[in-house]
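If your schedule permits, I should be very grateful for your opinion on a structural question. Thank you for your consideration; the sequence and its tokens are set out here:

===
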Amino acid sequence: MKCPVCNAETQMQSRSDGTEGPVCPECGWGREAPSAPGRPEPSRGIGFYLRYGLMWVLTVVVVGGPYFGIRYFLVEMGEFVETEDALAKLNLHYGWILLAYLGLCWAVTPEYDRSNLGIFGGHPDSRYNPAWTPEQHANRFMRTLSGLLMPGKIVVATVATTWRLVRKVKS
């Protein structure tokens, strides 16, 4: 394992509290034991609540926007007649698709190499640096996937934060 501070190789050593864990011999990272789970919560200022409110606004837009947009365009194009049965089907399909999307956003976190996207091509002589390599294609795909999953990740983060706050208030 590499040290997150200086990127040197860590070694398994005894810590100050008697437990064993990775310790960096170069910078000393890891000598102190991790904080106990019962550590006091940091105070939450107005910035936290402003961000939290913005997250809820974005959640409403991400969840409600496509639903009302799809409904509006289908009615305008004449493909959809607003009957009770048709609305029930639209609600059911939209709900299942939304749950699948949010589940995917919760489970998948695409990682890509931002320095190797190959956006501006490569070396003119393709023997040394081909303009488009499979790795660059994969990195561009992962970047696109990350962008497509970002709205759902905002919704998932909002729900998770709300869940943690509710649990904290109830305990």
The chain has a mean pLDDT of 81.
